[in-house]
Each structure stands twice: as C-alpha cells, then as structure tokens.
C-alpha cells in the first residue's frame, strides 16, 4: 500500500493545508466535509480505496499518531463500501446517496475489469464501523466499564435494526434481540462483535467490510488501572478474527491504532507502520501516565538528543500490551525508545540491518519534532522542579550536601529504575547512577551540568561538573565567591563502603577537568565521591579551595570577647584562627578528652567552634547560614578535614547551672538534660525511633523519677546514631562548676559520686561515641583506681597536653597579626609590643614536643584591642582578666593553707621560679574545701586558675643564675645559706645548676605583670580581712615615722597572733631544710633562721603595703631597702638577725650587729640621691622581737631609752594640762 495514500497530506499537499481556509482556495462541498469529518477542506485520498482492494492481505492494520488522518480515511472507506440497509431490493443498484460524494474524486477514474471502482464496489457491502475512541469511555471500575461497553454494543446493533433477519434461526434472532436490549452476560458480550459480523453475513448474504478505528485506545486507557477489562477487551477483539477463520464472513478489514503490537495472531493483519507526522494531543495523556513517576531519568538522554540530534539506543519490539504497563516499563526502560519511534518522535537511521538487540542510531524526525520535543522537555523540567521531592533532591547536591539523604534518595530512585538498560552491561549500575544524577541536576535552570569531553564508557569513573550559570555569564568572577560542585562516581568490584568514596575523592586530586584547573578558577569546589557497588551506593563530600584562597568579606573592625563562635563569625567579628584544634580531633574516634585551662582562656569559644564545625544543620536554612564559617581557615586547608564538616550529631551541655544544695543541683541537671532532649526532638524525625525509644525519650523530657540520670546521654547517642547513621560528639562545658562549693558537709562527695557515674556511663565503652570533650578550670578527682571513669579521659592541662597545647592563648605571631589588623603600630617611642609582653605574656604549656612558651592571655589581649584600636600612643593597659570571675573559693583555700606565709609562695613575688614535686596526673581531693587543703592542691589550684604558669628546667636554672646572693638567701628554705659568704653561695648555685631533677619535679612562676598585681591584690585582700590589719598599719607607719615604740609594740603584738604553724611551717614542709634542727613530725618552737623572718617582713611590705615594688616593674626589688612615695627623700634599710635567747640584752646585741652590717654595705655611697638613711636592726627569737634604729650617722637608738623618754614626756604633758585647767 502506497504510504502517501495513508497520509492526510503529502509534502506537496501541505502548501494548501493551513488552519484557516485561504480566500483563494476552492470551497469544498459542505456535505463531503461533514461526511468525512473535515473542517475546512478535504485532501483527496480516495486512491486508498484501490490500494485497500488490491492488496493481497485481507486485513490491514495501520498505526500512526493521532491527527494523522486515520479516522478521516476510515470514514471515507465506510461511505464508499456501505450498502443501503433500508432498500435491500435496490441494493444491486448501489447506494446512490453516497455515490455522489466520490464522483469527483480520483477513485472515480479508476477501473477494474472494464468497470469503474464506483460501479464495482461502491455501496455493495455491509460495513461494521467501530470507533473505540469516540463512542466508548473507560470507567473507574470493571463493572462500570462493562456497562459502558454494553451501551456501546446496543448502539451498534441499533444501526441495523431495519434489516430482514429471516435467514437467521430462532436462537440467532433471540440473541440479536438480547444484544439490542443490552441484556447479555459477560461471556455473551465477549462474542458481541463476532456475532454481529456473522449475523449480517447470514442475513444479507454478503461478506462484511470491518472498519475498526483506534482499536488500541481502550488498551492504552486501562493498561495501568483496569487489568480485568484489558483481558476482556482482548478476548472481544480477538474473537472477531478467530470466528472469521471458521465462517469466513469478512471481505476486508481495515484497523487503525496508535501503536504497532507484534503478536502471532496479529501477524497477518499488520502491514505497515511508518510514521511521518505527529500530533501530541492524544499522546500526552498516555505518555504522562507512563512517565509520571520517573520521567526525569530520561533527561540526560533527551538533553543529549537535543544537543546532537541523534542518540544510540537498543530498540526492543513491542510484543504485547503488557509491555506498556508501568511495572513492565520500570523493569525494561528501553521500551521507552520504541514508544518514541512508534509515536513519531524519532526514526531509525541505522545504516546496517542489525538485529533488534543491537544498538540503533535514532534521529529526530524533523524540525517540527525537535520543537515539540524541546517544548515538552522544558515543560517536564518545569513541572518536576515544582515537585517538592525533586526540589529537595536538587538542594541536597547543590547546597545542602546531606550525605545520608543523598544516599537515601539515590537508593530509592535506583530501585525504581532497575530496568533501564545500557550499552555497557559491565557498568550498568554505574551508568544508572550517573544518569540519575545528571538528569536530576539538569532540572535546575540555575545550573549548567558539564560532562567530560573525552569520555570512555569502559572506564569505571564518571565525572560531572555543576556550575551556576551566573559564573558562566559573568566576566567579574573576582568580585564574588564562586562555588561549584564536582561529582566523581566510581564503580567498585567489591562492597567496601566509605573506602570506595575515599578512593573516588582521591581521584583527580589536582582538580583538572578537561584541561581546566579548577583551583585556579573557582573559590570553592564541593567534591562528591560516590562509590557504586551494584545497587548499593555510598556518598562522602569534601570541600576544596582555590590556591591561596582568601575569603572575600568586608573589613573586620570588631573584636569579639564572647564564647559563641557562630555568632561571632556571622557578625563579622575578628577571631584568631584556632581551627587547627578541629584537625587534631578528626580521627580520634572513641577518645574522651578532659581539657583544663584557666577561666576566660578560650575553652567555651573553642568548644562552640568545634560544635559549629561538626554539627549537622537542622535544615537547608541553617546549613546556608553556617556554610562559610570555616572558609579559608586553617582546618579548611586540608580537604580531608572537610569530609567531616557538618556531618555529626553533637550533644552539647553547659554545666554552669544554679543550685543551692545537692538536691537542687540534681534537679537543675535533670532540667538541663530535659531541655537538650526537647531540642533534639525538634531536630529529628521523632517518629522514626522505635516505640520503646520514644517512650523513654518522653520520660526524660518530662523529668520522670524512674529515669536514671547517668544513662540519659548514652541513650541519646543511641537514638541519634540510629537517625543520623553516624556516631555522636559529646561536648560538656564547665563541668567544674558542679564541684568545689562549700554548701553542705557531704555535698562534694555526693556530687562526685553522681558525676563519676554520669561520666562513666556517658564515655566508657560508648559504642555510639565519635569523640567527647569535657572542659573546666579544675581537675576533679574523677579517675582514681576505684572510679568508674578510670583511664577514660585523656587529660589536657598546662602540666601535660599532648593534643591541644597550642590551641589556647595567643602566640607572638597571632598577637602581631592582631595589632597590624587593628592598626596598632609598634614604635621605639611607644614600645607597645614589649609592654604587652611584660603585662600579658608568659603563659606556658607542656606538650609532647616540649614546652610551649610565650602564650598571651587571649581574653586580656582582645580587651586591650577593644580599648586601643587605631592608637599609636597613650595606650590603656588594664587588668582586664581579674574582673572576669569570682576568686572567693581560691581565697578560702589560700587562707586555710596559710600559703600567704609560705616562703616559696612569697618568693614568687621576687621574680623567682619555684620547683615543686607532684604527680602530673594527680587530681584534686573532691572535698578539699571541707578539710585542710593539701599543699599540692593549692599550687595546682593556682596553676589551673591562671595565677601561675609552668616553666621548664632550663628557664628555672637561668633564673637561678640571675639571682644575687641576698635573693638566694631570702627565697631559700635552707637555713644554712644565711651563714654563707659569697663564694659559698656561688658554689651552692653551681650545685643547683648541675643537679638532675626527678620526673615529678615541676617549675612554676607568675606569668606576667597583670597576674602579679592581681595575685598581689588577692593576698592583700586575704590579709586585710584579718582583725590584725590595724596592727600591721601601725607597724609600717612606725617604720616611716621613725617611731620605735610603735614599731616594737605592733610587731611583737602581731607575732603573738601567729600560731606556731605560721612561723615554723618551713620545717613541716621541708624535711631537709636544716641539718642543725632535729627532724620531727611535731611542730616544736625552735627559732627559725633569718630568712624566715625576712620573708615574714617581705610579706608585710610586699604583699600588704606594696612598698618594695615600683610601678614600672614587678622585678625591681632591692632586698629590704626601700623608699616610699610619701617619704621619697629617705631610704629605709632593714637587716634581720636571730637571737639565741629572748633576753633583752641578747636581742639588743643582735640589733646592733644588724645595724653594723648595714653600715658595712655603705648604702650612702650607693644611693647618693637620698637625703636620709634610716637603718633598722631587727632581732627575733621565736615570737618575740626587738627593733633599734640609726638615722644617718647618728647613734643607735634603743627601744628601752625611747620608752623612758616617752613616759617622761607623757608625764610633763599631763602636768601642763593640769596647770592650765587651774588657771581657767
């Protein structure tokens, strides 16, 4: 059959085919247009009749798209062949009423056997015309559709109601009536059309012309919804031809449809299936039904097709209508390309006659087809982008980067599309994932998806770039931060999970894509490593940065002194980069750290920084707010670190809670944990937890009494691991706030037991823990041998920190950057760096590589910047740190321990580095506030509170070298030094420098001048709060006013207030202090050596009245020679001697020896700028003393003479007063 006879219009005829009838065209006969169902005109296709009659096949099936002219041609055939049923006797004389429509058509000129086709065939046959698209509707249920079909059959039979059925037997006539009335069973209904053909054939004794239009319309309409009617309809349709084989009632059959279906029983009726014209009207409903759930899978291929005009695919045969069902298509995706051909989108242009299983080259049919495909393609993408599921999936890959949800989406998608075949079966799953990802990303109109130019399908790697279109269009990329997504998909030979993702990420480390060096062109490259093993996949992403990346941001001119890292970064505050701490934590799975540092030392800020880095955001908004917090910082310089960015559930607790006693402390702790659970309930899909987990969770939120507080955090870890598919990070800040409070006699013991159990359950053998950090200012006794947390924590304190020793405080380099950033210049005139070093530097910390020195107090430095930015002089250096906390507990401990009278402690104020022996892993006694504080605890408390810092042996020995003889004597606990001469002192120092110390020896010093003054003030407060403060004032004022009575009486009275422990404490704590004093555990009142009394006096002057210290430097101490701002013209010199007896003569003799010793030192010649030299000789015996004085070169004034003179003067004044009263 000539193909042109089938088409509504050929290429030549198309010039006359427009939507509106042109004025110059002839008007067609209106009746013909109406008869053939044409609107404006009819293109003569009547030669189709000749082709139809002359073709050998008895049955012809033509499939083509809707609007192709099938129905018009079928109606033409109907009106040509159909006889006049009302005038049977005239039947031999043709159907003259219809004949007139063909007299002017081409068929009228055709002849056969010397007869025209009109005379030979027109109006000679009974015609059964069935249109299953126009006259029949599919209903929602099988029963309703059957009723609709019955109505269709009734109308069909009614067309032939006037025919004489005498030739039928009684059964056949009864059956006819039943079909006319619709009163038939389903089995009878299956034979309704075949019975009609047979009946007409018998009644009219004529073969039937059977015309079936849109035979496949019912099948396409119900293929995915009403499978029962599909089978019924197939039986109805096939019964027509089965019965024809038996009764031979058909003359010719012409069938039209949209799809060619190859089935054995159809082979004889299928003639042609060539398509040249397309209309989307009827196709769209079926197509959308087929592709509604997964049409985005086609995007990659259609994009390729539109770009190149062709595509190579396998084309399977359409064997039956089962192949059109969604279930089948989902398992055999390649059938889609068959449908594209059947509906006229594409044509097969393969040059070889290869088997259908081989790859065929498909080409877009015409320009019109391309436009239709592009329009449909655009509409698909727009509709899909409005789909929330697709929109969320796009966000996952372009902005959210949620690995778990990406995996979930990809697995769900791949399981729905397992039937999509690919040319390379070895990498079929790789290509499926590649197709899904490419197609998905192509939906977003804001992004361009770029594939590799040189692509080998036999490689086990697929690569994609996702670039925002504004980067492609802009010529000013330097003005904006550019972020692209680079996806590498790797096919694995074995299931190795995340290791495969790492392999994918490590592929193309240089980030060169088609000769483009991405790190030179773009600021941030989000690199996804996707590992594929059959249907399984794993996803990990990392962030790579441009070479020498610098974050584009506004000039930072604000200083942050708070503890909230995220707020500081988002608000554009300046923060010193401490993100190397994050790098140190990565890979420490199962570790628990206890970090001990002084207050305001950056613990909370660093903890918040860690949280901001690791914690997975709750949603895309939070993700975008935090996406750039770490851009350009130290942690981001290693791309492997960024694989952990925003990946983990983080549990954060701050234990700085309010309480009055143990019960209220526990209740506050329960409330804090309840709030934590309540917060996380809003962050996760709570319903995904098991029912028992939900019940336990709600109990914790409600603070139920049957909940074990100790197990709550581990339970939360278990739940979050189940939801996030990752282990948890636990951060606990200020744990020490629960301890060290004098509240109840047993408070610390009970709280210790509680926290011990809490930490044990939380950190010990917690399989859901990635790592944990506990921070505080003090090291509580939480890992003794009987403790549940024994050996859990890796302790990190100034005494030993092998992990984070360089993560707290500021270094010299960091300080220099700060000063430069805030325009604080260091000049010879202002010397600000040197002044800052003296004032705020000096902290140290022991690491695994030795001691780290010259660490500045961060809080103080930041406050200095706040008050001095953009200054070049007149700097304000204040004690910023001292006002940041309450030192009441420290004051109590120092008072209880009498540390303010300790020789070693007081020698710190003479710039001495002291050494102590204790275990670096020792913890505080949990109830040290209740009992006398152990000596070592006090020192550790001073260290962890920030008042002391550690030094190393080298610095200690350097300190010894620089001390003069008198300072060695004063600050030593060895009494034999007092009798040594200069040579002996030098030998003593030499032995100290050569001595090798044991491993338990630690060295301590006051770190800087800010701390010196703060500690000085603290000790003054401690002593100033005593009842003897007025006695001390009288003593010191007596020194300045040269009042021997006030000096002697005040000093003796003050000494009597001391217990033996105060003055003889040196013996208890230094068993090797003197070879002259018998060792004993009892405190007997042997008179101490001179240096004890020297330190005693130094404590009075240095600590209480600060008279020995000049403001310029804490180091300017000249033994016991000093001046005062109120008596600046005089130099006051004190020499101390110890008397063997407490007798007056013995004490007086010792005083004179002391004054003579002062004379020998010739202070007058050394300090010529003083006008007066006041020399005091002080003699001590136990808690008794005597003081004598010599002014310049005068005589020595004794206390006894002065006393008599004072009494005489008092008596004279009294007599004068009495005489005066008498006169009045």
Main pleated sheet? 5 strands, parallel
Number of helices: 48
Structural class: alpha/beta
Radius of gyration: 51 Å
Q: Identify low-pLDDT runs.
A: 6-28, 262-283, 1064-1085, 1105-1118
Helix content: 40-55%
Distance between the first and last residues' Cα? 160 Å
Q: What does the average pLDDT come to? A: 79
Given the C-alpha coordinates, what overall shape results?
Answer: rod-shaped
Account of the protein in words:
With 1224 residues, this protein is an alpha/beta fold. It is built from 48 helices and 32 strands. Strands 4-5-6-1-7 form a five-stranded parallel beta sheet. A five-stranded mixed beta sheet has the order 11-12-13-16-17. The chain has a five-stranded parallel beta sheet with strand order 19-20-21-18-22, with helices on both faces. β30 (1172-1181) and β31 form a beta hairpin. α7 packs across α8 and α35 (888-897) packs across α41. The radius of gyration is 51 Å and the shape is rod-shaped. The termini are far apart. The model is unreliable at 6-28, 262-283, 1064-1085 and 1105-1118 (pLDDT under 50).
Question: Can you summarize this structure?
Answer:
Helices cover 42% and strands 14% of the residues. With 1224 residues, the chain is an alpha/beta fold. It is rod-shaped, with a radius of gyration of 51 Å.
